[in-house]
Amino acid sequence: MATVKIWTDAEAEAHPRVKAVFDDIRATRKTDFVNNVWRALANQPAVLESTWAQVKAVMARESALDPLVKEMLYMAVSISNGCEYCVHSHTASARAKGMTDAQYEDLLAVVGLAATTNALVTALQVPVDPEFKV
Amino acid sequence: MATVKIWTDAEAEAHPRVKAVFDDIRATRKTDFVNNVWRALANQPAVLESTWAQVKAVMARESALDPLVKEMLYMAVSISNGCEYCVHSHTASARAKGMTDAQYEDLLAVVGLAATTNALVTALQVPVDPEFKV
Amino acid sequence: MATVKIWTDAEAEAHPRVKAVFDDIRATRKTDFVNNVWRALANQPAVLESTWAQVKAVMARESALDPLVKEMLYMAVSISNGCEYCVHSHTASARAKGMTDAQYEDLLAVVGLAATTNALVTALQVPVDPEFKV
Amino acid sequence: MATVKIWTDAEAEAHPRVKAVFDDIRATRKTDFVNNVWRALANQPAVLESTWAQVKAVMARESALDPLVKEMLYMAVSISNGCEYCVHSHTASARAKGMTDAQYEDLLAVVGLAATTNALVTALQVPVDPEFKV
Amino acid sequence: MATVKIWTDAEAEAHPRVKAVFDDIRATRKTDFVNNVWRALANQPAVLESTWAQVKAVMARESALDPLVKEMLYMAVSISNGCEYCVHSHTASARAKGMTDAQYEDLLAVVGLAATTNALVTALQVPVDPEFKV
Amino acid sequence: MATVKIWTDAEAEAHPRVKAVFDDIRATRKTDFVNNVWRALANQPAVLESTWAQVKAVMARESALDPLVKEMLYMAVSISNGCEYCVHSHTASARAKGMTDAQYEDLLAVVGLAATTNALVTALQVPVDPEFKV
Q: Which ranges carry the Carboxymuconolactone decarboxylase-like domain (chains A, B, C, D, E, F) (predicted)?
């Protein structure tokens, strides 16, 4: 259950600022599907607008990284932060962008390994090597 | 400062299990440089051996993901976990594997964006869309 | 589902230490409603007593901060820690203490922004400015 | 030490996009002081611009929450995320905005309490009360 | 709901690598019960094999720590990381290994206390005492 | 560097509430050494008093868990939360209470393993087995 109302399409249609964002999500992503994070953020139009603007700027534009790589980075952060919804939505997006089973397995292996070595390094308070200095 | 002694090369040479791991790190990575995480783990030979075995298995083998992509995933997890040493070591490794300034900027943009949307989704407790079901 | 039994009122009535805490919660908060965290902690009477004593000391006394501000700080921590129950209970408490939609939107904006800048600062390992020294 | 160069004023002056952001930070905050997070982000002009735009939009505008309350929420998130630089910069900002010792003590008490109850709730996996439903 | 298929016994029987791990789990633990984490990992045989090898090496062998103490350490980490499934599985395992109600209460008290003092120390950025140096 | 002043013994002697806590720390622990967390908390006497009261209640009393086990649980939480000072102070305390190198190695192995499996379980969103229900 959410802490706020999840907006239906009818409710979004009746609210100009929300409708404008939903329309742009659909046009940008070329799909009629608007997932629940936007339907929850609709309760706070200013946060809805700025969040969508950031997502569009970061994920939908041309960039130095492949769209799938960006989605996998998003998955890695979401897993590390323990965000259930985010893990689901970005795993689904990565699959939609072509993530293979073998790539998913490698991502899991790296994320699992990083969690271990992060913990060991923190436990031992390893000093940064001078060689890593910029 | 570390919670344990950081082993010198001379100390590692005198301890067969540690020497064997250090030798393999050097041979695998084709460099004489052994960074501090291994010099700290040398105090616990069993953990040193199993950790190196995992790193070698995950990072050094052929895989479905590009070595640079794996290093960038490692960076994303290390940033999310707030591990200072790990951020330094994996940023340096990513650069050594060819990460460009433009790719670094994109990684930062994705990691920063994911942190925000993770927080908002958690704040609103957004329910998982049935469309994401496997 | 919980890892422990959620105590009913009848069970609490039959256990003097638990009953004493539940009675004090009701008297302090001027409501008959005892939420599930206390019904779960009832399995460990010493932890129940010390936790309620701390909550009462921190949240229910006169202080330099407005009760609503304290509740919003509680929300911010609970969101950052990813605690589902805590997000729900403290969002509900903040609303009961008068949090408006506009204040909620501002809290979300700050929490989301802080998550991003925290991540970027950690990624870049920004050194603390001498100007911030006490 | 940072993972990137910390830009001097002279370096910023020579780079139009960076100079524009630094000028706006100084004008908005009515101070010549530009703290290190911006000098680190200067290496990635697009992230510098979007981050400053967000900070300006969230922190510097009129809002439903007092500027000091927003700064204290920022502190609470930064503490929970374990971001050293952020704890320093936002504690300094809160003091500059008038945070008293008594308010600081109350903030610490709430943040410490929330950390405990978050942990206990997670340990016991307390189910959300139906009364909290929207 | 999971992001992957949860394998049934029949499906595991038909896949030699998965079957081998499931057989070893049953033989090592002397029970027919294979819990869901292994049924989820079955989708990635290499990660399944390496994860089980690590769990077996760390948890099932003779060691300097009592099996119950190791399980309680596992609980403490899982609680701190906010991993719902892990809290459930390791609390159940600790009980199966003899954790008493009094021990559980003490664990909760320590974990709750550590969460508070960790938060306060981070808030105040307490410098490490020279006496703690190795 | 800290966000607050680290109190000297002379300063503590001159402040009755702080002096009372410092005296009790010394008497309880049978040592003249008062570590920095208390010297930082001295700036907030109410938080100093309540924090010391909790530490004393949880760590110094008779309990169902061995003092060393409690210290190791404290280490596990501090590592998971990434608290540098706390890792140092509780590792030092565990050693002072007799933690052997072999026990330390086992703790590191468990904490590292738990970090990995926590991450994998979160990545896969493994559903809780009905067998774990209370």
A: 52-126
* Cβ contact, residue pair C112, B122, below 8 Å: no
> Are residues A115 and B41, on separate chains, in Cβ contact within 8 Å?
no
**Each residue's pLDDT tens digit, B45-58:** 999 999 999 999 99
**Between vectors from CA B111 to CA B109 and to CA B114, what angle results, nearest 5°?**
105
For B25, how many CA atoms within 13 A lie in the half-sphere containing its CB?
A: 24
Q: What is the DSSP letter of F32?
A: S
CB contact under 8 A, E3 and A109: no
Q: Is F125 left (phi over 0), alpha (psi -120 to 50) or beta?
A: left
Query: What residue in A sits closest to D130 (Cα-Cα)?
Result: A1
d(CA E17, CA E37): 16
> Domains in chain E, please, with CATH?
1-61 (1.20.1290.10), 62-124 (1.20.1290.10)
Closest CA to B79 of A118, A64, E128: A118
Residues of F in contact with D112 (CB under 8 A): 47, 51
Contacts of B104 in chain D (CB under 8 A): 44
Residues of A with CB below 8 A from D4's CB?
134
User: DSSP secondary structure string, C46-59?
Assistant: HHHHHHHHHHHHHH
CA torsion angle D115 C72 B78 B113 (round to 10): 160
What is the C-alpha radius of gyration for chain B, rounded to an integer number of angstroms?
19
Rounded to two decimals, the ipTM of the complex is: 0.96
Across residues B19-46, what is the average pLDDT? 97
pLDDT band at C106 (very low <50, low <70, confident <90, very high): very high
Q: Which two tokens stand for residue F89?
A: 């102070």
> Of F118, B120, E51, nearest to C105 (Cα)?
B120
The SS3 call for residue D66 is: coil
**Contact indicator for E7, E39 with CB cutoff of 8 Å:** yes
Give pLDDT tens digits for F74-125: 999 999 999 999 999 999 999 999 999 999 999 999 999 999 999 999 999 9
Residues in F lying within 8 Å of D, measured between beta carbons:
1, 3, 43-44, 46-47, 50-51, 77, 81-83
E101/C47 CB distance under 8 A: no
- Phi/psi at B25 (5° precision): -60, -45
How far is residue A28's CA from residue E10's CA, in Å, rounded to a whole number? 43
Report the first-to-last Cα separation within chain C, whole angstroms: 47
